[in-house]
Amino acid sequence: MTATPIPRTLALTTYGDLDVSVMHEMPPGRQPIATTARPESRRDEIYAFVRREIESGRQAYIVYPLIEESAKVDLKAATEMADHLAQDVFPDLRVALLHGRLKQDAKDRVMGAFVRGEFDILVSTTVIEVGVDVPNATVMVIEHAERFGLSQLHQLRGASAAARTDRTVCSCISTRSPSRARNG
Predict the structure, then answer these.
(1) In terms of pTM, does the model score above 0.70?
(2) Each residue's pLDDT tens digit, 74-116
(3) Were both Cys, which of 18, 90, 114, 135 would link to 12 (CB 3.0–4.6 Å)?
(4) Are the CB atoms for 95 and 120 separated by under 8 Å?
(5) CA distance 147 to 77
């Protein structure tokens, strides 16, 4: 079973062409993912949490919707934010960048180094949403979460759930008003 065909599954279920199966428990050893929505104003708290988790020996993903900044939309982008995070926010930590425009061998090198623990933070785009298994990466921050669809958010959360026996936290940062991005 996979989460990949979520839109098709939802459509089939909605229109009556598919029976519904309910799974009442998680796979053995799997811990629930604590998912929170946070406004931009709480960014410092989120970064402090990321730092604490890394200091306890864990790794983190920080995901952006764009590779590079765009004049058309006012969104943070992975390339620029990787530099900012490495120089200004986490200068003492090892930050890497991964996105879809990198050549495959460069992607493989970065991902392999992250898996081996050579980087503390992986700044990325949604290129990581499928096929990533880094059990030590127990934190995921999704920037501009309102820009992603339900399927993408579910897939991204799944990438952070590879840590099957440890608590996993996914924080979604939204630039929308607090009434639209709940602080749960």
Answers:
(1) yes
(2) 899 999 999 999 999 999 999 999 999 999 999 999 999 999 9
(3) 18
(4) yes
(5) 12
